[in-house]
């Protein structure tokens, strides 16, 4: 796939699938039609059209019509034709969710699907993430994710789960997986599992959808917490990549490159969440990021206190690993290393990478080399791997 077309695929895939799902009422058919349209684009595009996304949607819609005419019964053709040929001036479905992609997220997060199936399917359809990327996000085998996606699509088809706007009463029950999906889409953009360090298109799309969700559910503190978290993270994104695409750590970032308007907006939302006094994990993560972006240096004692609170809500090894970084700054590397050595995160490169940094600070160079080598072998992102290789080379 040409570079320009690959960029279009990353930027437009989720939007096109969401639009076609609304038109067709069938997720699998929509995904197949969009994939067919991109295959045609590879053959026909000598250069990008003025509106690539619209071209893909139109082509996919036409391909779907052809497929329906060939394969469907007369009754099914009549129903689908009504959907496909609906006039542009026909009123939209009335309901609380008006954004196609946000509607598809809520649809995929139907309570009849398992939590992993909900988020895996949505990441595939909306984020355009491939199975290896989703598996990395969950630290599970790729085969597990593939099976869950296939089963989820089959469940949606066999149970006739409709693509429709959830009612106001249904929204809160579907909220946790929706928040998870937006968080994971942003994370894949912020630190891509393959290729370059950052996928800005995913970061921007996750932030846009978080804003839509906050407008839809302004009284949900965790929705506001997620929005603040994404704002404060996105504000620092320009400083995370050096001139040659290299990774720049928080301590080494040029803070003048941070987006101060986003930081101010994120801080205001964090203060609003504190006034509501209904804490949750996204609000606490937002508060941690607020501390990182408040002033010229980080108050690590405050960060550690927040991680202690977060660990009570989310007692996972990844939260414990992130907390260990704060422990090192407050209580020293030996105390942090004791925490890290108790953790098990198979295949997660940041565990040996963190361990290596702590071993270097303790002067245990041989052990640090081994830990860095393990981290290099596990890292999938080019920039992260290069960063770890550089650290390893410095020890040699």
From TrEMBL:
Domain DUF6596: from-to ranges: 174-272
- RNA polymerase sigma-70 region domain: which residues? 9-72
Instruction: For this UniProt record, give its keywords in alphabetical order, as a comma-separated list.
Output: Sigma factor, Transcription, Transcription regulation
Record's keyword annotation contains Transcription = yes
Pfam families named in the record: DUF6596, Sigma70_r2, Sigma70_r4_2
Indicate whether Transcription regulation appears among the record's keywords: yes
Q: Listed GO molecular functions?
A: DNA binding; sigma factor activity
What NCBIfam families has UniProt attached to this entry? Answer: sigma70-ECF (TIGR02937)
Which family is this sequence assigned to? Belongs to the sigma-70 factor family. ECF subfamily.
Name of the protein this chain belongs to: RNA polymerase, sigma subunit, ECF family
Q: Which organism is it from?
A: Pseudonocardia thermophila
